Queue: 2 jobs
Job 1
Amino acid sequence: MRLVTVDEELLKAFAEDEQVLYKSSRPCVLLVELIYKGKQQTFAVPLRSNIPHSASKEQFFALPPRKTTRKGNRHGIHYIKMIPVEWTYTHKCRSFEKRFSYQTKAIIDKNEERITAECQSYLTAYENGFRPNYCTDIDLLLERLKEFQKSKELTTV
């Protein structure tokens, strides 16, 4: 499991979905073996320092608070904000403070199976019609990802 950032151009291609977190330096967990609608798909799941206290515990994996985490909020991997990606449109994450990054990465690595299983459970529920408030539109984003890939192929020919 890698910590990555998502290519700024791809994030711009997702502009139609207002729930996508557009900060290109935002760290995300890259999950490459999730299944959505019967197909294997790679997803980037963002880390957020201020997940609202009202968020259901099934919607995120909690991490230790950061200095930017406001009182009453949580820091964690926010499943409902996941976006489909191809690994070629991601970059190694360099934005965390080193000590915090190592601690966070160690927790993520230790809980890799749980995080993957919880993301897969969220995707299965989403596929079956469960759409929590403020979640990304995965079907729309998959369409935009395909369009983005086609435009990249045309520019390299």
Job 2
Amino acid sequence: MKKQNQIKKSMEFRKYYLSEFQFHDGEAFITFNIVAIDTRKNEITVAISDRGRISVTTYDLLTDSNGSFYFEYGINYEKINVNDFEGVK
């Protein structure tokens, strides 16, 4: 059963592939694009565009008390919710 649940989660996250989210850090907008979500390792990989620099980074995929997935970004551990990402058209 556990493997079947992981497969369902994995299929569920396909809709987020390359989805985008913009976060304002107080000075500038930072753009995140989802590259991959690995539910077995509880990791999310995102491409980050920050002040003209692009990087690809993997973060721990966490779950809050509502069951929503998120990761923490930056020195202030800003909570970036996966449900806030939108498809790019």
